[in-house]
Design a protein that fits this description.
3 copies of one chain form a homotrimer. The first copy, chain A, is mainly α. Chain A contains 9 helices and no strands. Chain A has one domain.
Chain lengths: 210, 210, 210
């Protein structure tokens, strides 16, 4: 199994996790029908990569023109539809899969941005956008304030993973081990954030004090 | 009247219908002023085509750079503003015009995607995105869960029309008759859905049972 | 100081104002944490230019690939975070800065669109989109109906400023004085709108009369 195949497998795993997660969120938040779940699952799974590819000008977006991503995303959403009754007991597994998707997408997003000639700061931001973009579109569509803006550690692990990936690419140490290390760092920060309910600091009160 | 002229006329008719519909939705959902109605009508009418053209990389978007689309979309929104008091009695006509726009856009969207070299599955999805995209942006802007996710048969007729168009292009039978047939199929499914209040199946209950 | 440097300075001033404004809106509307404020401030400051550059096909977007915009936007959001307790007393200053950003972005947006070969009507619309786009995305993300659709004179001054810029470019009179004049016209209309609480006309009642 070559490095490319490994990364593709991991990328498709993340796509599957996000599609499941998006479709389930859809049915919980807004009682969507099967088409709504399919659409929301696919948007969640593919949205981050689409936004990234629009911003770097790589059109049509790879996750859109490559049938494997479309197929995996649709399959994940359909699985969520048919198993939605039983998915509650797998809540932890789905949350871990979502963390895995976040971790893989921040790394692949950052490296794709660097390959297209963007600067390191832009690549880190694009990595984070790839990771959180799909979930943000999902939340907007079902009428929620995007989780990335308000809750827990979500953007921070993605920024950390993307930063490690960019630094290792710039220092010439990038490869499958570095990519996996960056993804693993993101995953661990995210899981610790869930486990200990960590949050980024909030601003001091700005509403009327009384 | 050549085929191109016919298709353009139909496309502009769909644009007009969506602009009317978007502006009326705006004034009903959020008490918009004239600028808000103009903006929302134009976004509804042009949004689907803009999203399609961004995704296939045909920038600037045709519906944006072609003054005819801009003019028709603005005119539709202004008509809705000045006649908004009387438009309630034309509710059915507006809904039928919206169905016509949906039908025409799914076909023209799918054929444009195929012409730009995308695969058939991607072309079907892009046809549906062209048809439902403007209304989705409209709903997000006025704070509603997009109708396409939750209510009745809306995406399904668009997917059906786009599929017929793509199949007939691939088999070499595409032309004005096939395009109109595909649009007509979409229109009939949509109108039957409205008439008999049909809905796509929903997932089994996933909320807490008690 | 050359004209280009002057315009860049003004553009970065607008970016700073929008970043401050976006981050403060974020903490008021949705109790965002520091990452949420940073994200919302940057989206507000850079979003309009990003949408403009996507629509004219100038990818990656200038405001995204140019580190100065990213830095200024991030700095503005961080200032808002650390000073959020004290910012209430500067409400007027922030509103004026927002009006300045609106004025500068509608002019720079319109001239960039003309330079990329779009027609004058499209350039006026793109100037307005550049000016109001960031705030619109900000409002959608925190779950509000975008201010541009509903409240006061916001799009009209942007359209006026963009129109003056486009006319002066087309008549060959464009330069720093014309650009500043166009921005000033937008600024004055906006400030008069705030001062006298002016609103665009609304449609006659369309809800059920009783």
């Amino acid at each position: 199994m070559t490095g490319t195949t490994l990364l593709l497998s991991l990328d498709l795993t993340g796509t599957l996790a996000f599609a499941l997660n998006g479709a389930i969120t859809g049915v919980r938040a807004a009682r969507l029908d099967i088409i709504g779940m399919l659409a929301l699952g696919m948007v969640t799974a593919l949205g981050g990569g689409i936004v990234r590819d629009i911003l770097i000008g790589a059109l049509p977006p790879a996750t859109f023109s490559d049938w494997r991503y479309l197929t995996v995303a649709a399959a994940g959403a359909l699985v969520a539809f048919f198993l939605s009754k039983h998915l509650r007991r797998y809540a932890l597994a789905i949350e871990l899969a979502d963390a895995a998707g976040l971790s893989l997408f921040c790394v692949t997003g950052a490296s794709k941005a660097l390959e297209h000639g963007l600067g390191p700061a832009q690549a880190v931001i694009l990595g984070a956008i790839t990771a959180v973009g799909g979930g943000t579109v999902r939340d907007v569509l079902v009428g929620r304030v995007p989780a990335v803006l308000t809750s827990g550690l979500y953007a921070i692990p993605a920024l950390a993973g993307a930063t490690i990936a960019v630094v290792s690419m710039r220092t010439g140490d990038y490869g499958v081990p570095a990519a996996l290390g960056a993804a693993l760092a993101c995953f661990l920060i995210r899981v610790l954030g869930i486990r200990y309910d960590l949050n980024a600091p909030k601003a001091r009160e700005v509403r009327n004090p009384k």
